Amino acid sequence: MAGLDGYEGRSAVITGASSGIGAELARELARRGMRVALVARRRERLEKLAGEIGDAASVHACDVGERAQVERAAAEILQQHGGVDLLVNNAGILRHILFQDHDVDEIEQMMRVNYLGPVYWTKALLDQMRERGRGWILNVSSFAGVTPQPDEAAYAATKWALTGLSESIAPELEPQGIHVMVVHPVLVRTEMFTDEVYSRMPAGSEGAFIDAPEFVAETLRALERGETSLVVPRRFRATPVLRTLFPRTVGRAMARAKLSAVPGFEESGGS
Length: 271
Description:
7-stranded parallel beta sheet; alpha/beta; disordered C terminus
C-alpha cells in the first residue's frame, strides 16, 4: 500500500483534537486541503479550534473510551463527510505514578481511552474504508509503547497494546488498500506534561522535548512515504533495539534514571 498520496478534498478524523498533537495535526491537515472532523470531550475547545480552521472543520464531542459515544459520533461524521480517508487515533491520558500507588479504576479508564478508544474508532470506520478500497489509519502510541517505563507502568501497557494492535492489523489490511502506521513520540511539549509530571522526570529530560509542529511534520512525511512504524524524533530510534539486544544492561540503566527522579522511591524500599 502506498503512503498518503494527497490531502486535497479528503476527509480526516482526529481524536484528542482539543489540544497538543491532535490540534496541531488538525490545523496542518486543514492547511493541506483536508476536511477535518475534530473529536474530543471538551466541546468548547473544539469549537474554538474549528473557528480558527474555518469551514473545513466539524465538531464532535465524544469520550473515546465510551463505545456508544464513538459509534454515534462516527455515524454523524460519515453522514456529514460522506466518508473518511484518514483516521488519527491520538486521544490519550497520561499518569506518572508507581504501579503500587495506582488506583485500579484509573488504570481501567486509561486502558479504555488509550487502547479501546482506537479499537472502537477503527471498528466504526473500517467497513467504509474497506468498501472504498482505500484508507489510512495513524495510531499515536508513545516511546513508552516500545520501551518499558517504570513510574508509568499502566500507561506503558496501554501503549504497548496499541503498538501491538497496529503492527498486527497492518498486514491484514494492506491487501484491502488500507495503510496502518503507528508513531511513537518521545517527548512532545503539550499540556499532558503538567508540573507534577515534570517533577518526576530525570534531570536533563528537557533537552529531549520537541514542539508539536515538528512532530506533526515528521509524522506526515513518514505517512506519505508509506512507513508503518517510527519513533519521533528519529535520534531515539536505536534505543528500543538496544533495549531488546541488551535488556539487563540498558533496561536497568533506563529504570535507574527514571526512578531516581521519583520522590521518596528509595525511602519506600524500592531500589
